[in-house]
Amino acid sequence: MSSKKPTLENGYLGAQDEMKEVGLTPLTHKEPEFDISDNELEIKFSVSDPVKVTTNLIKCKTDKDIAPDYVFIQMERGAVSFSCSFPESGFYKFQIFALRKTDDSKSLPNVYNYLIHCKQAINPVYPYPKQYLEFKNNCRLYEPKVLNSSCRLRGVNFKVGVPNANKVAIVSNGEWTQLENTGSDIWEVKCNLDQHRNKNVKVTVNANFVDDETKYSTLLEYKI
Questions:
Q1: What's the CATH code of the domain at 27?
Q2: Beta strand spans in the chain (E)
Q3: Of the residues 65, 98, 118, which one is the last residue of a structural domain?
Q4: Is the dihedral of CA 181, 161, 128, 150 positive or negative?
Q5: Among residues 63, 95, 118, which one ends one of the domains?
Q6: Domain assignment of residue 9, yes or no
Q7: Which Pfam family, giving just one, matches this sequence (predicted)?
Q8: Per-residue pLDDT, 122
């Protein structure tokens, strides 16, 4: 059963004062309050200039922020997208914080707020991979968006966009698998991970950007 609709203060929903200054404009969900019949969605905003972005996804029933696991942020050309998953039915507050990349302020202001009512949590949802700082520099994850011990782990196709990388590799329990550059900054490989099922193994996507071939930056982290 869905939780009771929360009471919100005046001015909470929609664009906040810093919205125009940051240069964000909603593309897909222009009303700040809406219902969904499924428990997954993607929200997109256009951006006039590169931005730094973070979010909160707060389950109103518990006042708990679940964004670290259930929101995946990707930068695109002229846009930013937020893939959101809702593990239970009920009301959620989705808060977006943003700042132009040229602004060196450490605090990101709240620029837009949604109230989302998930009517039914029909599909099982799982945490997205952890994103590291280097991934947020215009990298893109095509697949897999979710990887855990409930997934098919034989012949997993990894496909990522990593601008300016010399090499990209998957590391699982000390085993390295290099990805192939298929053009236009796209890197791909099929990787067998079935031997790690239910062993709580970290699987990371890593990239080399410097002349020293031994130095890799972690982009993403899964657990299986």
A1: 2.60.40.10
A2: 14-15, 24-26, 33-36, 40-47, 51-59, 64-65, 71-76, 79-85, 90-100, 110-118, 130-131, 140-143, 156-161, 167-172, 175-178, 180-183, 186-191, 202-208, 217-223
A3: 118
A4: negative
A5: 118
A6: no
A7: Ig-like_KY
A8: 86
Report the distance separating Cα 219 and Cα 190, nearest Å.
Answer: 18
Give the confidence band of 105 by pLDDT, cuts at 50, 70, 90.
confident
- Within 13 Å of residue 87, how many CA atoms lie on the same side as its CB? 16
Q: What is the predicted pLDDT for the residue at 34?
A: 97
**Residue tagged 């950007």 (tokens):** 209
Which residues form the domain of 92? 14-118
For tokens 């062993």, what's the residue? 199
Task: Report the amino acid identity of residue 59.
Answer: K
d(CA 162, CA 33): 35
Contact 36, 55 (CB under 8 A): no
Residue owning tokens 């302020």: 105
Instruction: Evaluate whether residue 125 is within a structural domain.
Output: no
Residue reference for tokens 């300016």:
164
Q: Could you tell me if residue 95 is inside a domain?
A: yes
DSSP 174: T
96 near 55, Cβ under 8 Å?
A: yes
| Helical (H) or strand (E) element with 21 | helix 19-22
Q: Quote the number of domains for the chain.
A: 2
Residue 123 lies in a domain: no
Q: Against a cut of 0.85, is the pTM above it?
A: yes
For residue 209, count CB atoms less than 10 angstroms from its CB and return exposed for 0-12, middle for 13-18, buried for 19 or more: middle
